[in-house]
């Protein structure tokens, strides 16, 4: 092997084919070119060997074969030789077919992968293909049964044993059994049978006899207006002749037996009564429920249990509301009581509409808002003045010595142009106007802020069009109480904002900038010190003046120290104890932190470089004391209140008696680190080093001071900054050191939540607060916990409770038959409910005797 030498010339010569002559008898090749091309394949393909020896021997074998006898080599026909040659070339043809098929398969496979990848990405983005969500824990809790108790089971609140919440050593007791006559037997009999029909008639007669043996207690008038400081207040009437009074609201003493207590919030801290309950005739009877349209009512409430309803109109007859004009009644009431209120600037006309000549006034409104809000002052030597009374007569007002003047307050009802006002909406609005404005002798003025969605209507260039749209947007009895606004108008007034589209919504839209028309309305109406914003889908079982006045008084009395921290938590009396205990708990949680799952592993987490800093929280927190300014934004803080001393030296002194700039009905939570989907809707701020400090209150219903709204107006128009609607007022108050308060009003729930578990869920954020962590109840994936409550934007218990209270059947319970044969109409404590939509009343035709659903 080592002596082997490769000679390419030698091998080339050996591999050359031999072309020695062949006897013509052996082969008869065709002279065609195709046969000549096939001959080498026929001669050499079967004899080919790759070894050199075989190659060198190949020509000699061929010569020996040609020199042999012709009889040893059979002749082959030309057709057979052609077929043999075609057969040997067939692998190339099928190879091409196989390659084409393989290539096609690969292309289809690649396209399928691309298509599946696109579909998978689309499914992930749209949430398809996810496993069904795990059932929330609260759905396993049992429903409460005594939320819908009737007036025939009323007991004194001290003797009542609430079905919920129970003490730690108590067990769930069954609902009190009703008398046998109160259980309709038609549920036990087969419907449609003659026996069941006869039995039902007999049961109804027995039920009526039994009902007569259990008479309802007497109702009593409810008057929440204070007696002190109202000696000079003039009574207001609905007509110019001063003859039409509104009947007094009536309540029942006690609560239905077994009625649950509120799980969150409190009556006691506000001074509101929890020993009385309201039923539909005592609450809404003065405003048209319970009598026909012929007499000026709604025609609703003519069915169901009506025993004792006539006492509502025993002293004051029913009102024909067709003849009432609420705008005129409000105006007369305000004029007749103007001596009770502070002297305020008159309303201003928008310059872009009036186009005034000359220069604007020297004292600009932006300079006026820099002053501290005017506090109630004492008018020592008020001269005798002659003023119009509520009616046409005049009266001499005696000189007032050391009389405290009251601030004026506007109540803005948010609605829109094509809103459909059903009878239930109209009744609720009558109650609101009557109790806040007419009954208070002008302390409140109710106004409608109407959104015109069509920007192309010429309401700003044609007065007739404006008045037509305004009249078409409100029921006739509320004409003269509205103001129109459009999103294009807000874009003109608050121009210069970055045209951001957050969640495909414009920055000047009604959803993202709900408060733009409110701040501009406040800018044009400096005569009001406070503005309540109220939504059309909010209802209150109770008296509005009782709620507004007592909540405002309580909020004004709150000290500034740890106010933001208290306002960021739900108050659960069954767990937190008294309000003083709750305040102490908040101080400990803030100054020392809590050992919950958000920070219990903080020390170990710091040692792990793979865990980001945002994954854990570090106690303690620094209490908010004064303005919390953004890092990289310059705001006009020249007029912001400054703390008189440090928080360590304060003994709950600063802020006591200071009117609250913001009062809301949900906690002011920190959206940072939560999964609240609108937390990053921030416009005009420098976010290079992160988002500015923020606070949020879900639901925009609440009270806003002139100082707060003027600051928001200035920051938006001059500073060109804004945030999402539910975040903007609270954040403005935070940045400028204004007083913001969460009023923990009573909230009820429909299931038997363990109180400790409920408190942990709703205050599941950072250090026992409701926000500041992913585990916040306001994170998008955790807001389902509000479904069983009476106050949230998608609460399910609120509309069910409201319809049952109105006397209608809901989910198989309630209704006329159950009321008449059972405990009577439902009675409930005062409570805020939201949302209430499409609560259609069953009304009576005008002049008819049959009921028909009102569309």
Q: Would you spell out the secondary-structure blueprint of this structure?
A:
Layout: H1 8-15, H2 33-44, H3 52-66, H4 78-126, E1 154-155, H5 194-212, E2 220-222, E3 249-253, E4 255-256, E5 276-277, H6 280-284, H7 326-336, H8 351-354, H9 365-368, E6 378-379, E7 385-388, E8 394-397, E9 403-404, E10 409-416, H10 423-438, E11 444-451, H11 463-472, E12 482-485, H12 487-493, E13 501-502, E14 505-506, H13 516-524, E15 530-535, E16 539-541, H14 544-556, H15 563-566, H16 573-576, H17 579-592, H18 602-606, E17 662-664, E18 682-683, E19 702-705, H19 706-717, E20 722-723, H20 728-736, E21 740-742, H21 755-762, H22 797-806, H23 816-821, E22 831-833, E23 842-844, E24 851-853
Parallel strand pairs: 10-11, 10-15, 11-12, 17-21
Antiparallel strand pairs: 1-4, 2-3, 3-5, 6-9, 7-8, 13-14, 15-19, 16-22, 17-19, 18-20, 23-24
Molecular structure report:
The structure is a single chain. The chain is an alpha+beta fold and 855 residues long. The chain contains 23 helices and 24 strands. The strands form nine sheets. A seven-stranded mixed sheet has the order 12-11-10-15-19-17-21, sandwiched between helices. Strands 2-3-5 form a three-stranded antiparallel sheet. The termini are far apart. The model is unreliable at 24-71, 172-194, 363-401 and 847-855 (pLDDT under 50).
């Amino acid at each position: 092997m080592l002596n082997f030498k490769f000679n390419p010339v030698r091998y080339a010569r050996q591999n050359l084919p031999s072309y020695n002559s062949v006897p013509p008898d052996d082969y008869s090749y065709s002279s065609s070119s195709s046969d000549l091309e096939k001959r080498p394949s026929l001669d050499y393909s079967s004899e080919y060997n790759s070894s050199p020896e075989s190659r060198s021997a190949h020509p000699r074998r061929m010569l020996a074969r040609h020199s042999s006898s012709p009889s040893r080599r059979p002749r082959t026909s030309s057709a057979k030789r052609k077929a043999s040659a075609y057969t040997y070339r067939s692998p190339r043809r099928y190879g091409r077919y196989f390659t084409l098929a393989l290539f096609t398969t690969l292309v289809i496979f690649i396209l399928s992968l691309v298509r599946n990848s696109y579909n998978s990405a689309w499914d992930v983005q749209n949430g398809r293909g996810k496993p069904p969500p795990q059932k929330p824990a609260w759905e396993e809790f049992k429903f409460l049964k005594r939320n819908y108790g009737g007036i025939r089971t009323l007991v004194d609140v001290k003797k009542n044993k609430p079905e919920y919440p129970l003490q730690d050593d108590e067990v769930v007791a069954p609902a009190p059994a009703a008398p046998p006559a109160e259980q309709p037997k038609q549920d036990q009999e087969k419907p449609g049978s003659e026996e069941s029909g006869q039995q039902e008639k007999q049961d109804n007669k027995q039920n009526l006899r039994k009902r007569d043996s259990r008479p309802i207690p007497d109702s009593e008038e409810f008057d929440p207006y204070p007696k002190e400081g109202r000696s000079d207040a003039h009574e207001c009437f609905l007509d110019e002749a001063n003859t039409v009074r509104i009947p007094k609201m009536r309540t029942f003493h006690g609560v239905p037996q077994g009625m649950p207590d509120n799980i969150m919030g409190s009556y006691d801290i506000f001074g509101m009564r929890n020993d009385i309950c309201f039923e539909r005739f005592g609450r809404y009877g003065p405003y048209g429920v319970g009598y026909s349209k012929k007499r000026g009512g709604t025609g609703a409430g003519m069915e169901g249990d009506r025993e004792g309803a006539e006492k509502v109109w025993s002293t004051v007859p029913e009102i024909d509301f067709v003849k009432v004009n609420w705008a005129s009644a409000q105006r007369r009431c305000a004029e007749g009581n103007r001596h009770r209120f502070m002297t305020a600037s008159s309303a201003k006309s928008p310059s872009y509409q009036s186009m005034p000549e000359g220069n604007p006034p020297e004292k600009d409104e932006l300079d006026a808002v820099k002053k501290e809000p005017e506090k109630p002052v004492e008018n020592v030597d008020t001269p005798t003045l002659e003023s119009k009374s509520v009616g046409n007569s005049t009266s001499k007002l005696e000189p007032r010595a050391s009389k405290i003047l009251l601030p004026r307050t506007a109540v803005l009802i948010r609605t829109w142009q094509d809103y459909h006002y059903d009878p239930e909406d109209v009744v609720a609005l009558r109650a609101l106007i009557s109790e806040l404005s007419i009954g208070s002798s002008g302390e409140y003025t109710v106004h409608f802020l109407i959104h015109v969605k069509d920007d192309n209507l010429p309401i700003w260039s044609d007065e007739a069009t404006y008045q037509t749209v305004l009249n078409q947007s409100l029921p006739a009895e509320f004409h003269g109480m509205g103001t129109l606004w459009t999103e294009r108008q807000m874009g003109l007034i608050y121009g210069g904002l970055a045209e951001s589209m957050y969640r495909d919504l414009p920055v000047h839209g009604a959803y993202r900038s709900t408060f733009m028309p409110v701040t501009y309305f406040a800018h044009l109406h400096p005569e009001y010190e406070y503005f309540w914003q109220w939504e059309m889908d909010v209802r209150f079982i109770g008296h509005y003046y009782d709620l507004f006045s007592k909540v405002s008084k309580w909020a004004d009395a709150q000290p500034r120290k740890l106010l933001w921290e208290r306002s960021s938590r739900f108050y659960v009396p069954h767990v937190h104890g008294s309000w003083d205990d709750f305040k102490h708990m908040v101080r400990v949680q803030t100054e020392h932190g809590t050992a919950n799952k958000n920070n219990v592993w903080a020390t170990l987490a710091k040692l792990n470089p793979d865990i980001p800093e945002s994954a854990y929280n570090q106690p303690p927190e620094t209490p908010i004391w004064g303005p919390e300014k953004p890092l990289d934004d310059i705001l006009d803080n020249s007029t912001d209140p400054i703390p008189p001393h440090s928080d360590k030296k304060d003994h709950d002194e600063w802020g006591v008696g200071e009117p609250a700039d913001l009062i809301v009905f949900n906690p002011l939570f920190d959206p940072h680190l939560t999964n609240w989907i609108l937390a990053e809707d921030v416009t005009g701020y420098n976010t290079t080093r992160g988002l500015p400090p923020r606070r949020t209150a879900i639901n925009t219903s609440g009270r806003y001071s002139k100082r707060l709204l003027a600051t928001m107006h200035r920051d938006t128009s001059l500073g060109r900054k804004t945030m999402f609607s539910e975040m903007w007022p609270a954040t403005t108050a935070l940045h400028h050191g204004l007083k913001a308060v969460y009023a923990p009003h009573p909230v009820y729930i429909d299931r038997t939540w363990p109180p400790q578990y409920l408190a942990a869920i709703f205050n599941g954020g950072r250090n026992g607060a409701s926000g500041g962590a992913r585990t916040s109840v306001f994170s998008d994936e955790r807001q389902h916990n509000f479904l069983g409550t009476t106050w949230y934007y998608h609460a399910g218990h609120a509309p069910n409770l409201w319809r049952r209270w109105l006397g209608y059947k809901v989910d198989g319970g309630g209704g006329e038959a159950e009321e008449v044969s059972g405990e009577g109409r439902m009675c409930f404590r005062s409570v805020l409910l939201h949302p209430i939509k499409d609560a259609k009343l069953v009304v009576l035709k005008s002049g008819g005797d049959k009921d028909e659903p009102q569309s």
